[in-house]
């Protein structure tokens, strides 16, 4: 499976998870010059900007060291996401006062068992 396919599958899983938790998906793959917001959802009047990170687990080698997906959210990535969020709010909400949070959703796909493991890291601070 190619990395683009893995990323897309992870985003699909994250959206399914969020919808199951009562979120409405407002946007996907919002791209600006500074970066991309993977998923924007809404629940109870709050916007959630979601960065999805996905890795694949190899059950044939369970002891193999794997970086956790959330470890791929670097400070540089956070800075780009902060700018993208500001642009999103300016464009879609005309700078109205909007309640929002930034979450990281880490997905681990087990391709052998066709299961996905979801780890939500809520209320991450962006600069």
Shape: globular
Low-confidence stretches: none
Which whole number gives the mean pLDDT? 86
Helix and strand element order: HEEEHEE
Structure overview:
By secondary structure, this protein is α+β, with helices and mostly antiparallel strands. It has a single domain (3-121), classed as Trna Endonuclease, Chain: A, domain 1, CATH 3.40.1350.10. The chain contains two helices and five strands. It has helices spanning 3-20, 75-93, and strands at residues 24-32, 35-43, 46-57, 100-110, 115-121. The protein has a five-stranded mixed beta sheet with strand order 1-2-3-4-5. A hairpin with a 2-residue loop joins strand 2 (35-43) and strand 3. It is globular and about 45 Å long.
Provide the descriptors you would attach to this structure in a database record.
alpha+beta; Trna Endonuclease, Chain: A, domain 1; 5-stranded mixed beta sheet; 2 helices; 5 strands; 38% strand
